[in-house]
Amino acid sequence: MREAAPPGQQRLDDRVLGELRSLTQTLIAARPDAGDEYTRFLALGRRGIAVPEAELAGWLGGATVLVTGGTGCIGSTLMAQIARLRPARLVSVSRGVTSGWPRVAGAQYVHADIRDRPSLAAVFGAVRPDVVFHLAAQRDPGLAEREVHRTVTTNVLGTRHVIAAAEEAGASQLVFASTGKALRPYSREVYTASKRAAEWLVAEAARRGELTCAAGRFTHVIDNSIIYQRLLGWCGGGVIRLHAADILFYAQSALESAQLLLHAGLSARPEELWAHAITDLGWPVSLLDLALGVVARTGSEAPVYFSGYDPGYESKPFPGLYDPLTAGEVSPLLSAFEAVHVQQVAGRVTDAFPVLFAPGEQPATSLLAVQDACAAGDAAAVRAALDALSWWLLDATLQRVPRGALNRVAALTARFEDELSPAYRRILAAVRQYGGADCVRDQLPQSE
Q1: Residues 60-75: tens digit of each pLDDT
Q2: Is the pTM of this model over 0.85?
Q3: Alpha carbons 445 and 438: distance in angstroms, whole number
Q4: What pLDDT digit, counting tens, does each position of 226-255 carry?
Q5: 3-class secondary structure, 444
Q6: How far is CA 34 from CA 14, 87, 289, 290, in A?
Q7: Which residue, 410, 196, 436, is CA-closest to 319?
C-alpha cells in the first residue's frame, strides 16, 4: 500500500485509489480480528471508574459549582455527575458553540468566552462559585496548527483569565482538565505546548495559595473522538487517511474523564498542583484495526491511505520519555520525569503526581511575550513566543527532577543520539545539564 501511494500526497488519482481499494479489502481479509478491535473500542466508551460518593457529596453537596465548557462532551457529563451530589447551584459557562450533548435540569447555562476577561469576570462575580472546574479549551491538535492565535488565546490566556476570575470571585478551589500530551516536557506542537503552559499557570496559582488546585489528564476520549468521527465520515465517501500503520493509542470514556476530575478535586492539596491520571487504561487501541473494522462494519469501499503525519501530531516521541522501570506500573499519561514523583491514591484508581516547575522570572516574562504576540494578532509571532515559553518551562521542569531520574533519561536517550532531531538534541542537552556530570555516561542508574 505504501508503494502504491507514498505518504505526503494531498490528491490521489483514480488508478491509485482503485489499487488502494483492492489492497484495503485484502488487508481486511488478512486481519479478521479488526472487527473485534472496533467492538472493543466502542465498549471502552461505556467504561467508568469507582468514585467515593459520600466523600464527593460532602465536598460538593450544598456548594456553588461553576464549570467552564459545561456544554461540551466531558463538560456535560461532569455537570450530570455533579448534579447527583446536590450542589446548591450548578452553572455552566461556555461560548455555546457545542451542541448535541444533554443538558442538566435545574442547572444554569451562561454564555461567555474565556478569552474575554471582562465578560468572564462579570459572570464569576455574579455567581461567586465555591468550586470551579475548568474544561473550556480548543482540543484539536491539527486545528491548533492552523488556528494558532485562537488556540493560544483560549488554552493559555483563557486559562489565565479563568484563574484570575476565580481568585477575584473568592472561589476556594479550581480543578483543571489537562491532556496526556502534556506529559512531554517540551513540544513544538501548538496544542501540546498550550496545554503544558496552562498546567504551569494552574501550578503557579496553586503556589500563590488563593486557590486550592488540582488537575486531571485525559487521553483519547471516545465519546467525542476526532479520529472516529473522521473514520465514519471517510467511510461515507472519501479516503481514510492514517498517519501510519503501527499507531496505538490509549482511550477512555467521557464518564471516566468526569470521574477523574472529581477524584482529582477531592484529593487537592493546598499550595501544590497535583495531577491525576487513570492508572489502568487497558490495552491501547490499534488505529489500523479500528479503521479496518469501521470499513468492514459499514460496508464501505473507502480505501486506506497511509498519508504520513500531519502538523500537530508527533511521529516519534523523545526516546527517554518513558522509563522501563516505571512504564506499565503507572499511568501511561506520566513521563519518566513525572513517574519518579508518583503516588498511587489509596483505595482509588488514579496515579497522582505533583506538577513541578522551579520558580523564576523568565517564564512569566515569556508569558508576557505570548500575550503581546496575541494582541498583535500575528500567528507566526504567537507560535514563536509560545515556543520560547515552552523551552523555559522545560528548564523549570528539569530543575525539579531528581538527578537519578535525569541520569536514566539521558542514558536511555543516548542510544539514539545520532538519530535525534535538533529539538530532541536540545532536550537531551538540557537533561544532561541539570543531571550533572553523571549524565554523560551510558549506564542506566537506578532511579532515586
Answers
A1: 999 999 999 999 999 9
A2: yes
A3: 9
A4: 999 999 999 998 999 999 999 999 999 999
A5: coil
A6: 27, 44, 4, 6
A7: 410
Grid cell in block for residue 266? 477531592
Q: Distance between CA atoms of 66 and 93, rounded to whole angstroms? A: 7
353: which 3 cell numbers? 503526581
Q: Rounded CA gap, 313 and 114, in Å?
A: 26
308: left (phi over 0), alpha (psi -120 to 50) or beta: left
Section 424-440 average pLDDT: 88
Chain centre distance of CA 223: 15
- Distance in angstroms (rounded) separating the CA atoms of residues 198 and 177: 10
Q: At what angle do helices 379-398 and 361-376 cross, to 10 degrees?
A: 170
Helix axis angle for 117-127 and 158-168, nearest 10°, is 30
- pLDDT class for 448, splitting at 50, 70, 90? very low
Q: What pLDDT, on a 0 to 100 scale, did the predictor assign at position 346?
A: 65
Q: How many Å apart are CA 414 and CA 445, to the nearest integer? A: 14
436 band by pLDDT with thresholds 50, 70 and 90: confident
Q: Are 299 and 234 within 8 A, CB to CB? A: no
What grid cell was written down for 41? Answer: 473500542
Confidence class for position 87, pLDDT limits 50, 70, 90: very high
d(CA 30, CA 24): 10
Distance between CA atoms of 248 and 128, rounded to whole angstroms?
Answer: 43
CATH architecture of 1-386: 3-Layer(aba) Sandwich (3.40)
Listed residue (185, 254, 224, 202) closest to 98, CA to CA:
224
Q: Where are the domains of the chain?
A: 1-386
CA angle 300, 282, 187 (to 5 degrees): 85
CA distance 433 to 439: 8
Over the chain, what is the mean pLDDT?
94
Retrieve residue 318's grid coordinates.
523523545
Q: What is the C-alpha separation between 201 and 210, in angstroms, rounded?
A: 13
CA dihedral 111, 115, 117, 118 (to 10 degrees): -50
Residues 72/98, Cβ–Cβ less than 8 Å: yes
Specify the 3-state DSSP secondary structure of 53.
Answer: helix
Phi-psi domain of 209 (left: phi exceeds 0; alpha: psi -120 through 50; beta: other): left
